[in-house]
Amino acid sequence: MELKGKEVLQATKEQIWSLLMDPVTLAKITPGISRLELVEEDVYDAIAEIKIGPVKGTFGGKLRLKDKDQPNSFSLIVDQKSKIGNVNAKVDIALDTASAYESTISFDGKANMSGVLASKGARVMSGVASSLTKQFFAALRNEIASTEFEDKRSNIETDPNIKESSNKSTMTHDIELIINGETHSITVESRSVLANVIREQLRLTGTHIGCDTSSCGACTVLIDGKAIKSCTMLAVQAEGLAITTVEGLSENGMMHPIQEGFKEEHGLQCGFCTPGMMMTSIDLLHRNSNPNESEIREALEGNFCRCTGYHNIVRAVQYAAEKM
């Protein structure tokens, strides 16, 4: 299973490095890790909870940091064992300066699995790899957003369009967000998460926040047509992109087919998860106009519902597929 990813993050290389070298933060951002304990320099005892489709298990073993070149690169090596199989992985992580307050982080690696895990098909494992990548970047973005760093810039000329507040640890940016076809000119902090800006500054409260860990999917919106959990993205990263929230689905007073589907097939009870469910479903239907039940359930894996049991939600998506 190949593990690849690349993101631009709102922090310097030194700041990101300090987070990656912190055991508490490393445990939070490494997908599946439930406990991490330092046993010697750059070597940790690690406990992981891993779920792949219906297969899940508790793994124990080592996590090691190798070939450290501060603050540019290092390798993350994982050896985990369980009753359902073993996982051995090596991921090379590299940091590059993008601007005065931005850095590019990329990783490239491979995970080998044995036992029951090895029996899963390539399509399933590709989906797992994609999910792990998203979880890693989302968790790292959240840690960056919640950390008060010292004002330590990279050796690059500062962007003249960046305005600094009297609090030197906080920057603000004048940006334009295109939401539901309308352009909004607003000022946001560098650390402002898109979900919070949509709800609190623009008062589009149909986008819900349910977990603060990018797990529940209640905050899902469409960005350039793709379903994105808006709690995993900074507002400044969304400038110039086409954002659609649940408020933008209906046209001329007529409900979107997915809204009709959830109404007609009783796909909601409390309704808290419904906006995110609908946005993810629209993304699916744009990619696959006639998904079967298995494909619908797989697409909605990242959206949690605590009321309906999902059966009527699946029927609601099928209803919409016939109408779109």
List the defining traits of the structure above.
324 residues; alpha+beta; Alpha-D-Glucose-1,6-Bisphosphate, Chain A, domain 4; Ubiquitin-like (UB roll); DNA polymerase, domain 1; 3 domains; seven-stranded antiparallel β-sheet; six-stranded mixed β-sheet; 8 helices
Describe the 3D structure.
The chain has 324 residues and is α+β, with helices and mostly antiparallel strands. It has 3 domains: 145 residues, 2-Layer Sandwich (Alpha-D-Glucose-1,6-Bisphosphate, Chain A, domain 4); 78 residues, Ubiquitin-like (UB roll); 67 residues, DNA polymerase, domain 1. It is 28% helix and 33% strand. It is built from 8 helices and 13 strands. Helix 5 crosses helix 8 and helix 6 packs across helix 8. The longest helix is centred in the middle third of the chain and has 25 residues. The radius of gyration is 21 Å and the shape is globular.
Task: Explain the layout of strands and helices.
Layout: E1 2-9, H1 13-20, H2 23-29, E2 33-40, E3 43-52, E4 55-69, E5 73-82, E6 85-99, E7 102-113, H3 122-146, E8 163-164, E9 171-179, E10 182-189, H4 194-201, E11 220-223, E12 226-229, E13 242-244, H5 257-264, H6 274-287, H7 293-299, H8 311-323
Parallel strand pairs: 9-13
Antiparallel strand pairs: 1-7, 2-3, 3-4, 4-5, 5-6, 6-7, 8-9, 9-10, 11-12, 11-13
Helix pairs in contact: 5-8, 6-8
Question: Could you write a compact summary of the structure shown?
Answer:
This protein has eight helices and 13 strands. By secondary structure, it is an alpha+beta fold.
